[in-house]
Design goal:
Order of helices and strands of chain A: HHEEEEEEEHHHH
Structural class of chain B: alpha+beta
Strand order of the largest sheet of chain B: 1-6-2-3-4-5
Strand content of chain A: 15-25%
CATH topology of chain B: Cathepsin B, Chain A
CATH superfamily of chain B: Cysteine proteinases
Number of helices of chain A: 6
Radius of gyration of chain A: 16 Å
Largest interface: A-B, 31 and 41 residues
Number of domains of chain B: 1
CATH architecture of chain B: Alpha-Beta Complex
Structural class of chain A: alpha+beta
Order of helices and strands of chain B: HHHHHEHEHEEEHE
Largest sheet of chain B: 6 strands, antiparallel
Strand content of chain B: 15-25%
Shape of chain B: globular
Oligomer: heterodimer
Chain lengths: 186, 216
């Protein structure tokens, strides 16, 4: 993947690269759900993580996806876009922490759903490019904080899976924590 | 009439003289590039005849494959359930009918229909449909059905059969016809909507090696 792509397209490119892997094309069926890419970081590195799981729908194909942890997790390193798949106990791999309140996912106009997804992808790309969601202090905190807030604001509207909200509690908690720690004055 | 208005009128007159008369004296449209609409009445009829309606299981990809197989081989003497059970037994299809592009390739091969798995984009869709080939793509169901004004609780990737392109006078593909067993409907979709829908899917599509639709 070209890591010199404009920052607005990095996450989109990464997700497309993920879908192009043999693992995705062989182990994942069309009907499986896919979570939003979420930022995860430690003292050394930052990744985006996408969970994929089997959709067990009630009420037919138009019914709800039963909430269950993703069973395949794709870890994409920022900014190299190196892809790792984890096919193990998803509770360990996916950033899911029981006990945090499940965020609510607002209803969206279906026609606008993809626009909201693209907005989130672009916001996350910009935030990563500006040094947000990292243990290091960003070079330009106001720019990084503005981008991080856009990620937070666009996260839930971009999610099409209401029943997966519990699995977003941890990454949202961490995003909020990063903003609180770095953006008090910005 | 002012000089400026006279000048403008003269300019419009020149345009009318050169481009807007019937038949036009100038190349107002790139006639040389215009292509014959490849989709005929029999094609459209077959695309409707092969459509089974609403699927009963989580087997959208299998039902799309079955339409391709039946278009090539004729009506199969088996139920949706039997077709799905055979697919589960012979390919790596989930026990509820869930499949991916490689599974659909395997299933169609079981009935003697060879296909390839290609990148799902407008260029490849256009080329395949123009050649009369069978095309199965995936898209997020909420997005796909939302474009038809049908709301759903939430979306999952969903496979549909594209049966033919819609072309303008210049031969450009402006849309496609979709056979969608998820909602039991056939509908047209603009190329712009299709491009968005493809981005929301799994990134791959099935294309039969040979044409399956009649050329008339």
């Amino acid at each position: 993947m070209d890591t010199n792509m404009p920052p607005s397209s990095w996450v989109m490119q990464a997700v497309e690269a993920m879908k192009d892997t043999d693992v995705y094309q062989t182990k994942i069926k069309d009907s499986y759900y896919r979570t939003l890419p979420v930022p995860v970081w430690n003292s050394q590195r930052t990744w985006i993580v996408v969970g994929v799981g089997k959709s067990r729908q009630t009420g037919g194909i138009q019914g709800r996806v039963t909430s269950q942890p993703p069973h395949l997790v794709c870890i994409i390193e920022w900014p190299q876009a190196t892809i790792h798949w984890v096919d193990v106990d998803a509770d360990r791999a996916w950033p899911y922490q029981p006990g945090l309140p499940a965020p609510s996912i607002p209803d969206t106009n279906p026609r606008k759903a993809w626009d909201l997804t693209v907005h989130y992808y672009n916001a996350l790309s910009k935030a990563l490019e500006r040094g947000a969601f990292s243990a290091q202090t960003p070079a330009n905190p106001p720019a990084a904080c503005a981008a991080a807030r856009d990620v937070r604001a666009s996260f839930m509207p971009a999610s099409p899976y209401k029943s997966l909200a519990p699995y977003y509690a941890t990454p949202l908690h961490d995003i909020d924590g990063w903003i609180a720690a770095h953006c008090g004055k910005h | 009439m002012s000089a400026a208005a006279a000048s403008a009128n003269a300019a419009w007159g020149a345009v009318k003289k050169n481009f807007a008369e019937t038949p036009a004296k100038g190349p107002c449209i790139p006639c040389a590039a215009a292509k014959k609409n490849p989709v005929g009445a029999k094609w459209r009829k077959d695309a409707g005849d092969v459509f089974p309606g609403h699927q009963s299981y989580n087997d959208c990809g299998l039902e799309a494959s079955r339409q391709v197989v039946e278009q090539v081989k004729g009506k199969l003497d088996m139920s949706e359930r039997q077709f799905m059970d055979n697919a589960i037994a012979t390919c790596t299809v989930d026990d509820d009918g869930g499949a991916n592009a490689l599974d659909r390739q395997c299933v169609m091969q079981q009935y003697g229909v060879r296909s390839t798995v290609e990148k799902a984009d407008i260029t490849n869709v256009d080329a395949a449909l123009r050649d009369g080939k069978g095309v199965i793509v995936t898209a997020d169901s909420k997005l796909l059905w939302g474009m038809q004004g049908i709301s759903s609780q939430q979306g999952v990737p969903h496979a549909v059969l594209l049966t033919n392109g819609i072309y303008d006078d210049t031969g450009k593909m402006t849309g496609v016809w979709v056979n969608d067993t998820g909602i039991g409907q056939r509908y047209p979709m603009s190329t712009d909507d299709l491009a968005t829908a493809l981005k929301s899917g799994t990134g791959k599509m099935n294309v039969t090696d040979n044409p399956i639709w009649p050329s008339d």
